[in-house]
């Protein structure tokens, strides 16, 4: 009971903290004159992944690699199968392929990089450096390519920043939003890890399974909120772009930082099963972007069914 309450309280604090941090960061970026393009590309992209960052770094420092890695891999799977599927069921999604093809390709390449670097059974500091260098390269490439006028991807990332409403308006309100958001994220990560580890031990479930499922879904709630709101507003490019950006930041940024702080051995089940599901989900998304450019309700339902099957297999076979 205690572990379950701690888990729920942690998820709630992470969600509220992530929301507060994003709104404070976007308001601060606007206040100092940062372009909507850079705000959407970096601030919103990093902001929605803040819960994953705090939880994975915390888990890595406390030598809980199964949760640190499982959180990232599980979040990337959930972002596509669960969140994108949910958005498509809410509203069939039609996207501009030119706005999303680059990021879709980067998600697949980042997934392949993860599989390649983790082939030896662990991620070390050299691997972390490669991940982080890849993130810097992606951000430079994206900003330079989108700085030109009327580039669809630039318009999409600028729209991501415009999706944020009810922002703090004064300097002190921005500061409070940032400090409170950061405090909630740190406190929420501690509660989440305490509850997740305790629940895993009490139920005889591996930490990897808990990290890949419950923790991953809990830390993905900010992405879910942004994407669902965008889908309801018929802004499909923003909904899909948010998911792609989050998956890129998760693999290249968060996993890079976590592995740099503490080498991360890979759970056998991740190497045998989960990393391939992650790659398959990325492939499905890219196939969608490169072919029909429309995700119907039945296709969204198929993605949700795929996620339900993944969760079922996670708790029964492994």
UniProtKB/TrEMBL annotation:
A Gene Ontology CC term for this entry? Answer: plasma membrane
Q: Name one Pfam family in it.
A: Na_Ca_ex
Any one GO molecular-function label of the UniProt entry: calcium, potassium:sodium antiporter activity
The alphabetized UniProt keywords are: Membrane, Transmembrane, Transmembrane helix
Location of the protein in the cell? Membrane
Primary localization: membrane
Transmembrane ranges, per UniProt, are 77-95, 104-122, 128-144, 172-197, 209-232, 244-264, 276-293, 300-317
Q: Which residues form the Sodium/calcium exchanger membrane region domain?
A: 5-143, 175-315
One biological-process term from Gene Ontology?
A: intracellular calcium ion homeostasis
Membrane topology term reads:
Multi-pass membrane protein
Q: Which domain of life is it from?
A: Bacteria
Species: Vreelandella sulfidaeris
The protein's name in its UniProt record: Sodium:calcium antiporter
